[in-house]
Amino acid sequence: MVENRPVLTILRHLVLGLGVVIVLFPVWVAFVASTHPQAALMSGAAPLLPGDRLVENYSRLLASGMSQAGGTPVGLMLLNSFIMALLIATGKIAVSLVSAFAIVYFRFPFRMVAFWIIFLTLMLPVEVRILPTFEVIADLGMLNSYAGLTIPLVASATATFLFRQFYLTIPDELAEAARMDGAGPMRFFRDILLPLSRTNIAAIFVIMFLFGWNQYLWPLIVTTDESYTTIVMGIYRMVNVSDEQPQWHLVMATAMLALLPPVVVILVMQRLFVKGLVETEK
Amino acid sequence: MAGIGIRDVVKRYGDTKVIHGVSIDVADGELIVIVGPSGCGKSTLLRMVAGLEDITGGEVSIDGRVVNRLEPKDRNIAMVFQNYALYPHMSVYDNMAYGLKIAGLSKEAIRARVDKAATMLQLQPYLDRKPRQLSGGQRQRVAMGRCIVREPAAFLFDEPLSNLDAKLRVQMRLEIRQLQRSLGTTSLYVTHDQVEAMTLADRLVVMNAGVAEQIDTPMNVYLHPATTFVAGFIGSPAMNFMPGRLGADGRAVTLDTGAPLRALPEPIAGHGEKAVTIGVRPEHLTLVGSEAAELTLRVGVVETLGADTLVHGALLDKGQAVVPVAGEGGEVLAARLPGNVAVREGDTLPLRVVEGALHVFDRETGRRLADV
């Protein structure tokens, strides 16, 4: 829009500000709740101004966790979630980069069949195949391990599809020029395709990191050992304590902590992320 | 350095044959231009020499060595692509050095070669830039630099100038010519632009529908086109074709309208009383007095170019009826007259064919009957 009228500008900012308030209000409430003692949240009216228990609540959580919910320190849960999300994101990117490379640049029998099978799995979320996958992982003895947490999730139809679409936009001549220059397929992949995919990798990394971080059902099923509890599982466990009032102040503090790493990842990758999603120029 | 031999090369995609047995011998240091309309198979042929397409039949040899089954990198050739195909994330220097790096040359040797090529191409100030920071002409030079540093037995050019604007194209055309001369590297050059083809080539290959119609020097192709296709493709505006008949003596030529043309200086033996296609280039028609006229043209469109005036119009017979002609603008006759001739639409121009400028083709096969 080229129009520049002051009334419109004010209106625009009002609408945007309203949007920000709507989105941020729950986060604010959660933050405020995490700074109060338990009793303050039991009165029925949620406080809107921060309390005085910020340091106390958070340090208790990070060090020892909530005793009623198994007592796993939140710090460990964060670490578990981080490792899981990182492994899933890098695994997904590694696998899909290579499989997209195979589908686009190599002629082999049933190439399109392979592509369509991968494409079809887009429609099957983790939950649909959770029982057979659990059976396989259990038989392989991978329960209660990072491998069990991540390996079943590293195949990604979405990422494969996105990388395929990206590779298709790279002119064939580039591959041919590399061939004339004497670069073999893997050399071409490493020297040309990987550097060109940089922004796409960043964008997909962010999406897949969030996907990994937010996993709930799968970690819940494959881990029974407390030391593999992830943060998302942890929160739920804290809410569902038996025979007691839920300790909302600690739950909210945990939620705040769970928010942080994805936010940091997005902030760090933001520039590349946006570029990766909109880039058309090569 | 060495030549390229292409012998009876055939290309088939499934059941479709796109190249029907082409043979070209490129001598050492020669620049051969393959020219033809789009879809004639010229790029496919080049890509077969490069090793980017499989060769269905026949034989390609480079430097006396049959390369049919060799990978492109083992053929000792370098190629300039139509869209340059520079690696967008690498600097100009790295673009040129990449092939050498893979070949395992030492850092110093690579630097020496790239520096030499960059100096030759005036690319020294741009070595650290990325391709997107360069103009079209500079990118084109980088693409050539990438070829030069490899010091190959042959250069392959695949329409390298078609992405440039007209002025730059002329300039780069000259640069390519000079470069190829000074390096003396055997080159195969594919283009659809006949001016490019005429100006660059030592010898020209005119291709049509997967067949090499004629292989000769540019001047010979212009003066003695082997087929009606070549005659119509090379030269602008295109040659005029009129149906006619060769007399029994092999010298007299008559248009189907009955109008006699100037007799041929040399008789064409063995083709007496034959239905022929008569070709006359627009630049070989001159304005004469009406008593000497062989052809009468009723002016349709006049194009004033300054030095020349192009006249397009209908060919008339004695009864002023229009005679069908095959020329550049469809069924009209084109004539290139001096720029100082004043003609207007609707004028009737008496024209005569310049001595020895008639081309006679077999009407059935389209092949040239003789040099006239």
What does it look like?
The complex is a heterodimer of chains A (282) and B (372). In chain A, helix 3 (74-105) packs across helix 7 (157-169). Chain A is mostly helical and 282 residues long. Chain A has helices at 6-33, 54-64, 74-105, 111-120, 130-139, 146-150, 157-169, 172-180, 185-196, 198-213, 217-222, 231-239, 248-278. Chain A is globular, with a radius of gyration of 23 Å. The two termini of chain A are 27 Å apart. By secondary structure, chain B is an alpha+beta fold. Chain B has two domains: 4-231, Rossmann fold; 236-370, OB fold (Dihydrolipoamide Acetyltransferase, E2P) (Beta Barrel), CATH 2.40.50.140.
Give the structure's gist in a few sentences.
With about 280 residues, chain A is mainly alpha-helical. Helix content of chain A is about 70%, strand content about 0%.
Quaternary state of the chains = heterodimer
Structural class of chain B: alpha+beta
- Beta-strand level of the residues of chain A, as a percent range? under 5%
Helix content of chain A: 55-70%
User: Most extensive chain contact?
Assistant: A-B, 19 and 23 residues
**The first-level CATH class name of the largest domain in chain B:** Alpha Beta
Structural class of chain A: mainly alpha
CATH class of the domain at 67-232 and 258-278 in chain A: Mainly Alpha
| Helix percentage of chain B | 10-25%
Mean pLDDT of chain B: 87
Q: Write out the strand line-up for the largest beta sheet of chain B, numbering strands in chain order.
A: 6-7-8-3-9-10
Return the CATH architecture of the largest domain in chain B. 3-Layer(aba) Sandwich
